[in-house]
Design brief:
Length: about 270
């Protein structure tokens, strides 16, 4: 039996709740072997980001090539890319290795509000990485930022932004509704053939550090196991909702605490 493998290309979170650490926890919790290529080190905790140290692009490329040259990578998750040079290296590597699935989480701002992506890199994200993705997973503010538009507040506005994002070259967009209002958090999976609304009860907790990272990596894990996109998104969403609901079992930090990736185990 082949072991499913997923690779995360993202930043490291020193507090363990988001980024590479959240991705590897999500992969493991869902029965997928996780590999990583680190784009940046961050000094951060549950209250904010105090420093970012970008990994040199040539060493980022070396990490990616080392993984692909040995491991049978079934899916790639891309998170924090930090700088334009990193985007160019990642895009080149994806063209070189042609992975079957690429889940791109266009991380621009941390849960705490700290900016994680240089302004000149946003255009690189649009033009170089989005066309190589199987699915992109922006939240409401990120979808708006990618289009230089106000945040979509209605279903019609969100669907319209999703369709505009499709024109950037990816076949599917999952716009996450966690930043919306109301008793339900609705995610929208938008493709050329139509829109699938995925509602879920909104969980009342401050422990939301790493939710976006974890959802995109959970989708990658499901794709690596062979699930079709619809099922991968549904399964990943169920996993993250349960991890948020179980997060109050933890008392970690003084800000936005982490979610409980291993809620099924302890």
């Amino acid at each position: 039996m082949t072991t499913p493998v997923a690779l995360t290309i993202a930043g490291s979170d020193s507090s363990g709740g988001a980024g590479i650490q959240a991705d590897l926890k999500s992969f493991a919790a869902l029965g997928v072997y996780g590999a990583s290529a680190i784009t940046a080190l961050t000094a951060q905790n549950t209250t904010g980001v105090s420093g970012i140290h970008a990994v040199p692009p040539e060493f980022l490329a070396a990490q990616i090539d080392a993984v692909f040259s040995d491991l049978a990578v079934g899916a790639v998750k891309i998170g924090m890319v930090a700088q334009l040079a990193s985007i160019e290296v990642i895009a080149s590597a994806l063209r070189r290795w042609s992975p079957k699935h690429v889940v791109l989480d266009p991380v621009m701002v941390a849960t705490s509000g700290d900016r994680l992506l240089a302004a000149d890199a946003v255009e690189g994200l649009r033009s170089k990485l989005i066309p190589l993705a199987t699915v992109i997973t922006p939240n409401l503010p990120e979808a708006a930022a990618l289009l230089n538009e106000p945040v979509g507040l209605s279903e019609a506005a969100i669907e319209s932004q999703g369709k505009k994002l499709l024109t950037l070259g990816c076949p599917a967009v999952l716009i996450k509704g966690g930043h919306g209002q109301g008793s339900e958090s609705v995610d929208y999976l938008i493709r050329a053939g139509g829109t699938l609304a995925l509602p879920a009860p909104r969980v009342a907790t401050d422990n939301t550090h790493g939710t976006g990272c974890s959802l995109s990596s959970a989708i990658a894990a499901e794709l690596a196991k062979g699930a079709p996109l619809d099922a991968a998104v549904r399964n990943a969403k169920a996993f993250v909702i349960a991890a948020i609901a179980a997060s109050d079992r933890f008392t970690v930090g003084h800000g936005h605490g982490p979610i409980h990736h291993f809620h099924r185990f302890y």
